[in-house]
Amino acid sequence: MKRFATRTLLTVGAVAALIVAERALERRLTRRVLEATDADLDPLYELPEDATAYDLPAHDGGTIHVVERGTGRPLVLLHGVTLQAEAWAPLLHILGEHFRVVAIDVRGHGLSTPGTEGIGRLRAAADLATLLERLDLHDAIVMGHSMGGMIMGEFCRYHHDVLDERVSGLVFMSTAVADLLLPAVGPMVLAAGGRLVRRVDAGRRVPKVIGDNNRSVLVTRTAFGAHPSGIAVAQAARLGAAVDPRYYLPLWVDLLDYDGESALDTVDLPAMVLVGSRDTLTPVFRARRIAEHLVNGELHVLPDAGHQLLQERPREVAELLLDFERRLPPVPG
Predict the structure, then answer these.
(1) Strand runs (DSSP E) across the chain, as ranges?
(2) Are 81 and 251 in contact (CB under 8 A)?
(3) By CB atoms within 10 Å of each CB, which of 19, 47, 109, 176 scores lowest?
(4) Measured between alpha carbons, how far is residue 187 from residues 175, 238, 249, 251, 256 in Å?
């Protein structure tokens, strides 16, 4: 009995030591991530002081929070899941002198509020149509990052009249067109996701990957490529932690069965597809697949960049956008 007790104590002690060591390693790695700097980009991660913010009424009684800056051809920006309009701050700085840059909080994020139809990519596609019509935007370029690109796909499918009347070009950034899950595991993952969503609806607690802790910073770091700024990583982690727990899982689950191939096959507008060579969430082969389904799609792979192109490579993205815009028909008047 004494020998068993001794072994138990040694085992407990070893486990405790491993936990302490793991937490110490997390702290060291987190500190290393957050201490990384980028003298060129670090001043750009806060929204410009001259940006304006306001709320638009949505079609179902909710609101769409808008941040915009500049004048010129409209450039409408749709962020990825767990982000907000704030994540586009570098491009609001860089492109506000050339475009009317309009970024929104997709509902379920930030200051936008759900209405009677809830949240999800179909609601967001309708919100994009609402935004273009309420602001009377014409000849716009619409750019979507990750989830934002999927929202664009649904917009092309269900709101082609608004697309034809008000949009001149499309930019798909770090996103996918279909088959986010392998066929062998897709039904199981979707079923598990549905169960978790029902737990949320019932008011029960469910795990959240991104929170306000060191591990969340390290998880967020995996979405970036080589040598990101610590400010950018911290921003993405903070925005992820800010998502209302009621919406966090439903937003993710809503993306898993997305299939936008047939919608893009009918789009003949000029289009650009951007992806980082180190993007592990929506890799290069997914970007290539999008370009193949667009009649006038062109693919650009940014070396050593990850999934967060809007934060880690905004100057290169801006240069590509300016070149893309120069090749579009000029805005009348």
Answers:
(1) 52-57, 63-69, 73-78, 99-105, 140-145, 167-173, 270-276, 296-302
(2) yes
(3) 19
(4) 21, 31, 17, 17, 10
What distance in Å separates the CA atoms of residue 14 and residue 20, rounded to the nearest whole number? 10
Rg (CA), the chain: 21
The confidence score (pLDDT) of residue 201 equals: 55
The Cα angle at residue 320 between residues 54 and 42, in degrees rounded to 5 = 60
- End-to-end CA gap in the chain: 91
Please give the mean pLDDT across all residues of the chain.
87
- Phi first, then psi: give them for residue 187, nearest 5 degrees: -60, -40
Residue 261 has pLDDT above 90, yes or no: no
Q: Give the containing element (helix H, strand E) for 311.
A: helix 309-312
Nearest to 100 by CA among 151, 164, 161, 52: 52
Model confidence at 10, in pLDDT bands (50, 70, 90)? very low
**What is the band of 305 on the pLDDT scale with cuts at 50, 70, 90?**
very high
d(CA 162, CA 113): 23
**CATH number attached to the domain at 36-326:** 3.40.50.1820
* pLDDT surpassing 50 at residue 293: yes
CA distance 119 to 99: 29
